[in-house]
């Protein structure tokens, strides 16, 4: 992330938006269950809020410095790549990610993340989250930064193509949310 983007992601403004708007909307009606995996927590704004919603939370962060900063806060942190998760099949009741899919280098990396989320979910488990919609502000935050926008209209088909069922998206002015289920009963 560039400096402007990092500064915003650590700001009180972003924290308030995540806590009071984004996370409640993205997870409305989602049963996370007892073992949640968060992909790409960054500075951990969502992670701290998720920890209160489940018995066990694990976060996977690709940036070693950010992963180190998150350790010791009441949840497990793994320095790793969300497209190659170091967990057994069917480990988690839910997999979540928030405003991070566009940080992957290309759509094929996003699809690998989707396949890995499916693999580590228990049957009946949910994959849910959100990402940003493209806007001038979004583009400015990503100058000289990785930005691979996700088309919310095509996301459900992409999730279904890797094996999820009941895949759906909802669009708001600045963001979209998604959820999908691993087939089978929980």
| CATH architecture call | 3-Layer(aba) Sandwich
Number of helices: 7
N-end to C-end Cα span:
37 Å
- According to CATH, the homologous superfamily is Vaccinia Virus protein VP39
CATH class wording: Alpha Beta
User: What spatial order of strands do you see in the largest sheet?
Assistant: 3-2-1-4-5-7-6
Identify the overall geometry.
Answer: globular
User: Per CATH, what is the topology?
Assistant: Rossmann fold
Instruction: Assess the beta-strand content as a share of residues.
Output: 25-35%
**Rounded Rg:** 15 Å
Average pLDDT metric: 90
Q: Helix and strand succession?
A: HHEHEHEEHEHHEE
Helix content: 25-40%
Structural class: alpha/beta
Describe, in plain words, how this protein is organized in 3D:
This protein has seven helices and seven strands, in the order ααβαβαββαβααββ. It has a seven-stranded mixed sheet with strand order 3-2-1-4-5-7-6, sandwiched between helices. It has helices at 3-9, 12-26, 45-51, 64-70, 107-120, 136-141, 152-161, and strands spanning 35-39, 56-61, 76-79, 92-98, 121-132, 165-171, 175-181. It is globular, with a radius of gyration of 15 Å. The protein has a single domain (3-181), classed as Rossmann fold (3-Layer(aba) Sandwich). The longest helix has 15 residues, at 12-26. With 186 residues, it is an alpha/beta fold. Helices cover 35% and strands 26% of the residues. It starts with a helix and ends in a 5-residue tail after the last strand.
């Amino acid at each position: 992330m560039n400096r402007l983007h990092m500064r915003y992601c650590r700001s009180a403004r972003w924290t308030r938006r995540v806590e009071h708007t984004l996370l409640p909307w993205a997870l409305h009606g989602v049963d996370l269950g007892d073992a949640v995996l968060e992909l790409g927590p960054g500075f951990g704004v969502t992670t701290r809020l998720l920890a209160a919603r489940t018995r066990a939370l694990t976060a996977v962060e690709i940036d070693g410095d950010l992963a180190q900063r998150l350790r010791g806060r009441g949840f497990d942190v793994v320095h790793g790549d969300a497209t190659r998760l170091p967990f057994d099949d069917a480990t988690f009741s839910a997999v979540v990610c928030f405003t991070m899919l566009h940080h992957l280098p290309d759509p094929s990396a996003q699809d690998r993340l989707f396949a890995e989320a499916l693999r580590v979910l228990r049957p009946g488990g949910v994959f849910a989250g959100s990402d940003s919609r493209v806007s001038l502000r979004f583009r400015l935050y990503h100058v000289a930064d990785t930005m691979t926008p996700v088309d919310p209209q095509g996301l459900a088909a992409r999730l279904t193509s890797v094996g999820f069922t009941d895949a759906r998206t909802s669009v708001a002015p600045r963001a979209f949310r998604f959820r999908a289920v691993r087939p089978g009963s929980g």
